[in-house]
Amino acid sequence: MSATAGTAENKAARPQRHSRGKRPRFYATPGLDDAMSMIVVLAQELSVLRDRVDAIERVALKRGIDLAQEIDELELDQAALDARELQRQQLFERLYYVVRKEAHELEQAESKQQYDQVIQETAQA
């Protein structure tokens, strides 16, 4: 729910940057660091959302608008539903970023190991 929602297409078109090297680990239990990372992302999203809802309610109240009734009566068109779906997918991208990054790194490591093994076998033949 960013204030620059109109630039969502621009953000989607940019390649995603990845930090290099191993991520620091704070917990001994496998996967707990990833889960905590996801929780932090969700907490950030929730905080931003609460701030925006609060601002919307305050602005509407100043103008005498009953937001609760308006929201209950709201019917979204397909464009609005599509925009919400895009926002939801972008949230999931941020939420699962670390897990996908680590899976990609493991895949790259396995590919390198397989490559090294083929080279070694070829050199021995």
Please mark out the parts with pLDDT under 50 across 5 or more consecutive residues, or reply none.
1-5
Largest sheet: none
Give the averaged pLDDT, no decimals. 81
If you compute it from the alpha carbons, what radius of gyration comes out, rounded to the nearest whole angstrom? Answer: 22 Å
Q: What is the distance, rounded to the nearest whole angstrom, between the alpha carbons of the first and last residues?
A: 59 Å
Query: What overall form do the CA principal axes indicate?
Result: elongated
- By oligomeric state, this entry counts as single chain
Which structural category fits the helices and strands?
mainly alpha
H/E topology pattern: HHHHH
Highlighted features:
125 residues; 0% strand; 72% helix; disordered N terminus; mainly alpha
How is this structure best described in words?
- This protein is mostly helical and 125 residues long.
- 72% of the residues lie in helices and 0% in strands.
- The protein is built from five helices and no strands.
- The chain is elongated, with a radius of gyration of 22 Å.
- The N and C termini lie far apart (59 Å).
- The N terminus is likely disordered.
In short:
By secondary structure, this protein is mainly α. Helix content is 72%, strand content 0%.
Walk me through the topology.
Layout: H1 8-13, H2 32-62, H3 67-73, H4 78-95, H5 97-124
